[in-house]
């Protein structure tokens, strides 16, 4: 079945460092890809998404490009801040069907940023 | 309301008791989803509603779990004869246009269930 594999955490970086969190997927259809973020004590929020190959999703300085050839959707940010400390989930939905698609999540990567 | 709301925010129960968890989706969203977040299993899909019907129940872990949705709005997830392995955060999400690849699911804050 469809699945998502993402970088194991925790990841600890200094403020202003460059961030990459790797994510690869397996899907038989044409999935939409997402990054969700869960800040401490808060609910799950959509960070960014891409619905077809070569699309780039971006939000709050984060970017991810849908790479069909490598089945990847790596999350990047050029300069992280302490406020970016959170758990990040890579996810997909399979858009083949006319009915709604459940989200399949990766295991999550905990990111901590040191001042 | 502006977002998905869930109640209660925390629930502590004794093993063997039944519990009901409630979800209020975003107004106008026809699709509603339940997920579970636990330490051992990560984030897992449980069930999906379109209107009042549930075309996908594939994630319900056992027949102790059931859910209903009334009036195309509020949904209740019921767990009967709770077990310790049911302890988790139960998340509800809703979306407007599930037939579109561009559809986005919006999540509630969750209900933390602890079974003693």
Keywords:
heterodimer; A: 115 residues; mainly beta; 6-stranded mixed sheet; 4-stranded antiparallel sheet; 50% strand; B: 116 residues; 7-stranded mixed sheet; 0% helix
| Biggest beta sheet attributes of chain A | 6 strands, mixed
Helix count of chain B, per DSSP? 0
**Helix and strand succession of chain A?**
EEEEEEEEEEEE
* Assembly context of the chains: heterodimer
Low-confidence stretches of chain B: none
Q: Helix count of chain A?
A: 0
Name the shape of chain B in a single word. globular
Rg of chain B, Å, rounded: 13 Å
The 3D shape of chain A can be described as globular
Span of the ends, CA to CA of chain A: 41 Å
Strand proportion of chain B = over 45%
Share in helix of chain B: under 10%
Interface with most residues:
A-B, 25 and 28 residues
Major beta-sheet overview of chain B: 7 strands, mixed
Descriptive report:
The complex is a heterodimer of chains A (115) and B (116). With 115 residues, chain A is an all-beta fold. Chain A has no helices and twelve strands. Chain A has strands at residues 3-6, 11-14, 19-21, 23-26, 31-38, 44-50, 56-59, 62-65, 75-77, 86-94, 104-105, 109-114. In chain A, strands 2, 5, 6, 10, 11 and 12 form a six-stranded mixed β-sheet that branches. Chain A is globular. In chain A, 39% of the residues are buried. In chain B, strands 2, 4, 5, 6, 9, 10 and 11 form a seven-stranded mixed β-sheet that branches. A four-stranded antiparallel β-sheet of chain B has the order 1-3-8-7, with no helix packed on it. Chain B contains no helices and eleven strands. In chain B, a hairpin with a 3-residue loop joins strand 4 and strand 5 (42-50). Helix content of chain B is 0%, strand content 51%. With 116 residues, chain B is mostly beta strands. Chain B starts with a strand and ends with a strand. The model of chain B has no long low-confidence stretch (mean pLDDT 92). At the A-B interface, strand 6 and strand 11 of A face strand 4, strand 5, strand 9 and strand 10 of B.
